[in-house]
């Protein structure tokens, strides 16, 4: 029997999306993607986005739907599932090229195209089993910051912690980084990272492996971690350890209400 993968879809007001996404993680979601009417829309009205949260089993998904219904105001989560590997392709119908940064356009590999304007870089990306299409604001904010500081990034190495699809590591390479080391505690995503690197001719400049930051033995001038505050908080000593003196540490996936506490945690090291 083929495995079934449950997920919960819920339409939420756009200003509340990050807070509710964090709540879904607290309820056991293994990943949350944000979709809007211009990208991966499935039923969201104007001014709303659809959050799609994956769960390990149906019990967790059903419990999350019940918890969403107890919020004030209540939210109506929808339980859906895909069978076997069909879920890999279920989202492709809605995935179209989009500008991730002023210079980088994310393009699906089944509809490749050349750059259409001067200075444009095309990133062929398929998330596969990994989260990280580039549609979530936390990913876009990091990518935009890397783009803004491309001159400082050029020729340097970068460590991407919790890499997912590898999108941020690949963005850094497109912007001129010499080499990217991408790690994730999910074994399944490493193949995805390497496949995406190969699609873009970057496989010789990417080192991807399953593991945790505690296993990293050297320092990097650039370190990015787009995870969430509850994970970033205990990782502070290790992320500080792998950051070279005078280097850039970019953290994302943080709610505004969590920012000050997290900044204090990292600046105290």
UniProtKB/TrEMBL annotation:
The keyword rRNA-binding does not apply. GO terms for biological process: methylation. InterPro entries: Ribosomal_L11_MeTrfase_PrmA, Ribosomal_PrmA_MeTrfase, SAM-dependent_MTases_sf. One of its GO terms (cellular component) is ribosome. Transmembrane segments: none annotated. GO terms for molecular function: protein methyltransferase activity. Keywords: Cytoplasm, Methyltransferase, Ribonucleoprotein, Ribosomal protein, S-adenosyl-L-methionine, Transferase. PANTHER family: ELECTRON TRANSFER FLAVOPROTEIN BETA SUBUNIT LYSINE METHYLTRANSFERASE. Belongs to the methyltransferase superfamily. PrmA family. This is Ribosomal protein L11 methyltransferase. It comes from Sorangium cellulosum (Polyangium cellulosum).
